[in-house]
Amino acid sequence: MGTEKYSSYDVLNAFFDDGSFQETDAYLKSADGIAEAVTGFGTVDGVPVFAFAQNVDQCGGAMSKAQAKKITKLYNAALKTGAPVVGFYNSVGGRLEQKYDLLSAYGDILRKSSKLSGVVPQISVVLGNCLGTSALIAASADYIIMEKDAKLGVDTVGAKASADDNLKDGNVSFICDGYEACVDKAKVLLGYFPANNLEPAPAFETVPSYANPDKLPKFFADENSLLCVGGGYGEPVCTAFGRVNGYPVGIVVTKGGEIDSCGAKKIMKHVRFCDAFSLPIITIVDAEKFASLSDASKLISVYADATAPKIAVVSGTAVGAVYIALAGATSGADLVYALPEAVVSPVAPKAAAFILDETIGDAPVAEQETRADAFVKANLSAVKAAEDGYVDDIVDQAELREKLVSAIDMLSSKRVSTLPKKHTTNI
Predict the structure, then answer these.
(1) Helices 179-190 and 8-15: angle between axes, nearest 10 degrees
(2) Given 194, 199, 346, 383, which residue has the most CB atoms within 10 angstroms?
(3) Does residue 2 have a pLDDT over 60?
(4) Range(s) for CATH 3.90.226.10 in the chain?
(5) Domain 8-190: which CATH class?
(6) Strand order, beta sheet including 22-24
(7) Cα–Cα distance between 315 and 341 in angstroms, integer?
(8) Among candidates 4, 134, 1, which has minimal Cα distance to 62?
């Protein structure tokens, strides 16, 4: 981790607004010293937040009964008040002399974190070693930020625990250089979320869109508002947060071709989080197929279950199961827009052309592709999909932002009653 030296108080004071941090359980003892983590609350950009930071100056930040007690009390307070929780991890492990009490302490924290999931946002910031069971606790948060030299993994010797390894595996969303950059990223991320699942997300002052025709999310998102999450995992699928006319939204972008297993999982995680906190979900659809039947089925369930406002934009080619999962009636999309050049087809467009127009196969080979393209343009276009009721409106890219602003405003009061059940089983 280099030579940078800082304390848990340095981290928390950098995280909270100036003068707002209030420590809790400051005198709680662990064995012969102060408990190995600092806990407390304060405001971040004026919003109440709870946070803890493991203190490497106390027994290397090792987990103990006392530390677990402080952290679980913090989780209880967050559950009662509906405020986000941010944990800063840097520890040598656990106090093994506490044996089974240590296992119970880990279990208490994991249980509390699980109860908070979907109720308030949780962010883990890994600044040093976070191995073994501590890694499970960090991974129970909604998003993980890692310092570039930190370690995160269930293997206590740190094998395959680097920041790069975790980014490739989809475990972390951001890698930052130094603790201050990690703190800043956590603050930026919190700015897109409501405090809890009952409150609206914070709105920001309206700023112009990017007006960049080559980058569709940038074209309709407010300037400098896009925050991609998930790193290079699951490419070419992109998931992001952004703002449209000041209102926070979740964005899913498919970029053509095939949605593989990693891409599907990336979308599922993002949609489930956005739905838990009622953030509108804008899905840019341009893909021809799924690589996995299992992941396609699970993704369909995630979209179908989501009750947050859902808007689909068919930007390129939406084929069969992809259209059904991300934009069709099964997805429960409230509105489906399409760009003029979009194609909606039950099977691969060229295959559909040969199946539906037998004369193409009878034509000279040199002419077949041209005739197939003409068939697709005439019969599988956005206009045809709109005429058949599968697209609500055809929108030029220059008009898309205005359409989305109006749609988000209209859907902000969306209310959906669901059947009584504990949860979906197909996940």
Answers:
(1) 40
(2) 194
(3) no
(4) 8-190, 216-342+381-411
(5) alpha beta
(6) 22-24, 37-44, 47-54, 85-89, 122-126, 143-147, 174-176
(7) 8
(8) 134
pLDDT digits (tens, 9 = 90+) for 21-64: 999 999 888 877 787 889 999 999 999 999 999 988 877 677 88
Tokens of 233: 């995992």
Q: Is 248 exposed, middle or buried (0-12, 13-18, 19+ CB in 10 A)?
A: buried
pLDDT of residue 3: 47
φ and ψ at residue 361, rounded to 5 degrees: -70, -25
User: What is d(CA 80, CA 6) in angstroms, rounded to the nearest whole number?
Assistant: 32
DSSP tag of 347? S
| Res 96 pLDDT > 70 | no
Q: Name the H helices within 277-396.
A: 293-305, 320-326, 349-356, 358-362, 365-379, 382-387
Residue-averaged pLDDT of the chain: 88
Q: 216-342+381-411 in CATH: which number?
A: 3.90.226.10
Residue 362 has pLDDT above 90, yes or no: no
Phi, psi at residue 381, to the nearest 5°?
A: -80, 170
pLDDT for 411: 94
pLDDT one-digit tens code per residue, 160-177: 899 999 999 999 999 999
Residues 360 and 46: their CA atoms lie apart, in Å, by 65
Question: Which of 129, 138, 147, 208 shows the shortest CA–CA distance to 402?
Answer: 208
Q: What is the pLDDT of residue 408?
A: 95
Amino acid at 47: V
Tokens of 19: 């003068």
